[in-house]
Amino acid sequence: MKPRQQRMLAVGLAVIGIAIAAAFTLRAFQDNMMFFVDISDVIKGDYPKQRNFRIGGLVVDGSVERAEGSMDLRFRVTDMNCELPVSYVGVLPDLFREGQGVVAHGRLGGDGVFLADKILAKHDENYMAPEVADSLAKHVEGKTTPLREGVTGCDPQ
After folding, report:
1. 89-126 residue pLDDT tens
2. How many CB atoms lie within 10 A of CB 3?
3. Checking DSSP bridges between strand 72-78 and strand 101-108, what pairing results, if any?
């Protein structure tokens, strides 16, 4: 084999090796990636069907229901346009309360209830997850009163 052919073979093998390494890396990132989805988009059906995703918004006042003698919890989250029921089993963050910002990781159940695996509450009065703040800002324009228990006002557009 001539030196030029050897260099071409070495370059070709290096390119193939880099491509394979990049494919494995992208696959690993894709398996661990969790998308943020607006509640209005979930209501429209525009969410990843076969994987977990994140939702965020404000916990609706008066919506938190705790099961007696268990760690089961149900509540509603709003993006100031639509509300989504959430079910969670586990220990809640200390800062979780009605009217506060929350991010939930999980998937949508067949009955339209978001089944949360993890709940994150905002950690002080001034901070809100950027995705949640953007979602709320997008839907709060033009609204004069916040949503109340039982009033969805949902217009997924």
Report:
1. 999 888 888 888 899 999 998 888 999 999 998 765 55
2. 7
3. unpaired
Write down the residue that tokens 């939702």 correspond to. Answer: 55
- The answer to whether residues 75 and 64 touch, using CB atoms and an 8 Å cutoff, is yes
Superfamily of 35-140 according to CATH: Nucleic acid-binding proteins (2.40.50.140)
Specify the pLDDT at position 140: 61
Q: What's the Cα-to-Cα distance from 120 to each of 27, 30, 88, 91, 146, rounded to whole Å?
A: 27, 22, 12, 11, 22
18-33 burial, b for 16+ CB within 10 Å, e for fewer?
eeeeeeeeeeeeeeee
| 84 alpha-carbon distance from chain centroid | 12
From residue 152, give the alpha-carbon distance in Å to each of 4, 43, 137. 70, 11, 17
14-31 pLDDT, tens digit each: 999 999 999 999 888 876
